[in-house]
Specification:
Protein name: 23S rRNA (Uracil-5-)-methyltransferase RumA
Number of domains: 3
Radius of gyration: 24 Å
Number of strands: 23
Organism: Ileibacterium valens
Keywords: Methyltransferase, S-adenosyl-L-methionine, Transferase
CATH superfamily of the largest domain: Vaccinia Virus protein VP39
Strand content: 25-35%
GO biological process, one term: rRNA base methylation
Largest sheet: 8 strands, mixed
CATH architecture of the largest domain: 3-Layer(aba) Sandwich
Number of helices: 11
Structural class: alpha/beta
Oligomer: single chain
Bound molecules: S-adenosylmethionine
GO molecular function, one term: rRNA (uridine-C5-)-methyltransferase activity
Length: about 450
C-alpha cells in the first residue's frame, strides 16, 4: 500500500472513531466517510507499517444506511462522526461495539440494547467555542479534527436551538475591541430555559456593557461571567473569574430536582437522556430506606439527591469545592435532610470509611478509576455498585479490577447521550459475589 495510490475496496465495518474499515494486502485501512458494504475507489493519504488512512475518491455503491449529513461542517469539524449514517444504524453499531468490548471482560455480561433518543437533534446544553480574530474579523466555531484550526460554524445541529441563536448574535455583534484576547466562548442552557454565557480570555476588555446588551436581547440569560485564563495548556477554564451580570450559576431541573449549577461544575450535556440514565441507575440500585448510599465523584450531587428520596442516608464525595458547595445548597433548596456532601478525593474517602456503604454510585471522569481506588471502594463493602461511565473502554478495564475484588457485573445498560458522535454512556450493575476475593498483586502491595 502506497501513499497517493488508488484502490477499489468494499467497506467491511466501522471504527469507533466513525471511519470505515477495509483491508488492502492484509493491512487495515481507515477510510473517511465509507460505510460497511459500500464499494468505492479510495486514495491513501497516510501509509504506515501497520495501517493506512484513506479518503473516498469515487463511491461505486451506496449503503442503505447512508443519509445526507444535515450539517455543512460534516467531516470538517471534529464533533459528529456519524452524520452520514442513519440514527438506528448508529445505535446498532454502538451496541455491537459494546457487545464486543464487554465480551472480552466476561461473556456472561448482558449488554442491553442502547436507549436512543426520540429526537436526536438540538440536545446539547453546553458549548465551548474557540474564538479568534483573523484578518480583522471574529472567527469562531469548532476545532478541525486533530488541529487548533477553527472550522467556522453559523449553527450546529446537535446544540440547543437557543445556544445557536445566542452564539450567532454574539459573533455578529461583539465589537472587535472586546474580542481581543478572548480564547473561548462558553454558553449553557438549562432545562428551566435559564442561560449562562462565559467569556474566557487573557484580559477583561470591559465586557459589562456588552453583557447588558446581550441580556436585553436574550432576557433568559441570567449569568454572564468573565473567566481569566492565561494558562499555556489546553485547559479551558481557570479559577479566576468576575461576574459581569447576574450570578455565577443557573438553575437546572432534573426529574423534579432543582439544581443550582456553577459554570465550573460538571453537568451531563444531554438533559433528556440524563433523566433516562439516572432513572435507570436508580432502578438498578434498588434502594431501601435502611440503605447508606455513598456517591463518589458526586459533582453537584444530582444522583445522590435523587437517591435520597428512596435511601436512609446519602454521602456524596467530590473534589471540586464549587461543586460541593452547589451540592450542599441544592440539598437545602430541595429540603432534603438525609444527604451530605464532602470535598475529598474519592479514593481517600473510601480508604478512610471501610465497611460504610450499602450501595455505592460512581460516576468518574473519562479516565475512569485506578486499581487502588477500586480496591478502596470495595473496602466500603457495598452489596451493589452502580457505575456510570462515559467511556466504555475505561469501564471495561475497571470491571476487571472489580472482579478481582470479589464483585461481578451481569448487566450493562447503554444510553445514547451523544447522538451522531462516537460517545456513549453506560450504567453497569456490579454486585458482590460470594466468591473469595482474588486480590491482584498491585492491590496487595
Ligand atoms: C462525570 S462527572 C460526574 C458528576 C456527577 N455524578 C453529576 O452527574 O453531576 C465526574 C466528577 O468527578 C469529579 N472528580 C474528578 N476526580 C475526582 C476525584 N479524584 N475524587 C472525587 N471527585 C473527582 C469531577 O470534578 C466531576 O464532578
Amino acid at each position: 500500500m502506497k501513499k497517493n495510490s488508488v484502490y477499489r475496496v468494499v467497506g467491511e465495518s466501522v471504527s469507533d472513531q466513525g471511519y470505515g474499515i477495509t483491508h488492502i494486502d492484509g493491512q487495515t485501512v481507515f477510510v473517511k466517510n465509507l460505510l460497511p458494504d459500500e464499494e468505492a475507489d479510495i486514495k491513501i493519504i497516510k501509509a504506515t507499517k501497520s495501517y493506512g488512512v484513506a479518503i473516498v475518491q469515487k463511491r461505486i455503491s451506496t449503503s442503505k444506511d447512508r443519509v445526507e449529513p444535515v450539517c455543512t461542517q460534516a467531516g470538517k469539524c471534529g464533533g459528529c462522526s456519524f452524520l452520514h449514517m442513519n440514527y438506528s444504524s448508529e445505535l446498532n453499531f454502538k451496541h455491537d461495539e459494546l457487545n464486543h468490548l464487554f465480551d472480552q471482560v466476561d461473556p456472561s455480561i448482558d449488554v442491553k440494547p442502547v436507549l436512543g433518543m426520540e429526537n436526536p437533534w438540538n440536545y446539547r446544553n453546553k458549548a465551548q467555542f474557540p474564538i479568534r480574530i483573523k484578518d480583522g474579523k471574529i472567527v469562531s466555531g469548532f476545532y478541525r479534527p486533530h488541529t487548533n484550526e477553527i472550522a467556522p460554524i453559523d449553527h450546529c445541529p446537535i446544540q440547543a436551538v437557543m445556544i445557536n441563536e445566542v452564539f450567532a448574535w454574539i459573533i455578529e455583534n461583539l465589537p472587535l475591541r472586546d474580542a481581543r484576547g478572548l480564547r473561548h466562548l462558553y454558553i449553557r442552557e438549562a432545562k428551566t430555559k435559564q442561560m449562562q454565557v462565559v467569556f474566557i480570555g487573557e484580559q477583561e476588555n470591559d465586557l459589562k456593557d456588552f453583557a447588558r446588551l446581550l441580556q436585553k436581547q436574550f432576557p433568559q440569560i441570567v449569568s454572564v461571567v468573565f473567566n481569566k485564563n492565561t494558562r499555556k495548556d489546553n485547559v479551558i477554564l481557570s479559577d479566576e473569574y468576575e461576574i459581569l451580570l447576574g450570578k455565577d450559576t443557573i438553575t437546572e431541573d432534573c426529574l423534579g430536582l432543582k439544581i443550582e449549577l456553577h459554570f465550573k461544575s460538571f453537568y451531563q450535556i444531554n438533559p433528556v437522556q440524563m433523566e433516562v440514565l439516572y432513572s435507570k441507575a436508580l432502578e438498578l440500585a434498588n434502594l431501601s430506606k435502611e440503605d447508606h448510599v455513598i456517591e463518589l465523584y458526586s459533582g453537584t450531587g444530582t444522583i445522590g439527591l435523587l437517591a435520597a428520596r428512596s435511601a436512609g442516608k446519602v454521602t456524596g464525595v467530590e473534589i471540586v469545592p464549587e461543586a460541593v458547595a452547589n451540592a450542599n445548597e441544592n440539598r437545602k433548596a430541595n429540603h432534603i435532610e438525609n444527604a451530605q456532601f464532602i470535598c475529598m478525593d474519592a479514593s481517600e474517602f473510601a480508604a478512610k470509611n471501610k465497611n460504610a456503604a450499602d450501595v455505592v454510585f460512581v460516576d468518574p471522569p473519562r479516565k475512569g478509576m485506578t486499581t487502588q481506588g477500586i480496591h478502596d471502594i470495595c473496602l466500603l463493602e457495598p452489596r451493589r455498585i452502580v457505575y456510570i461511565s462515559c467511556n466504555p473502554r475505561t469501564l471495561a478495564r475497571d470491571l476487571k479490577d472489580f472482579m478481582n475484588n470479589g464483585y461481578s457485573c451481569k448487566l450493562i445498560q447503554p444510553v445514547d447521550m451523544f447522538a451522531h458522535t462516537t460517545g456513549i454512556e453506560c450504567v453497569a450493575l456490579i454486585e458482590k459475589t460470594n466468591e473469595p476475593r482474588l486480590l491482584n498483586n498491585k492491590t496487595d502491595e
